[in-house]
């Protein structure tokens, strides 16, 4: 399972990039994902180059959390594709193995 959060206005392009890199494949289906909206919160320090907000200020932004099933062999490609298109300087993401039932 691969999970990331992205500003809502960028969710479709990030979702497509991850799907094109091999995320979200399930049997005869591709581009499968689950998303929900929430509020992301961060404060950029003086060394940051924030895409949103200002250095030293707490920023709240509407984000989508996007979850994909993915094969372990594809994870490096998925991370590279996500980082290439994601608007954040340091996008947060998680990967954890899921056993098929």
Automatic annotation (TrEMBL):
Protein name, as recorded: NGG1p interacting factor NIF3
Signal peptide annotation: none
Domain of life per record: Bacteria
Species of the source: Candidatus Kaiserbacteria bacterium RIFCSPLOWO2_01_FULL_53_17
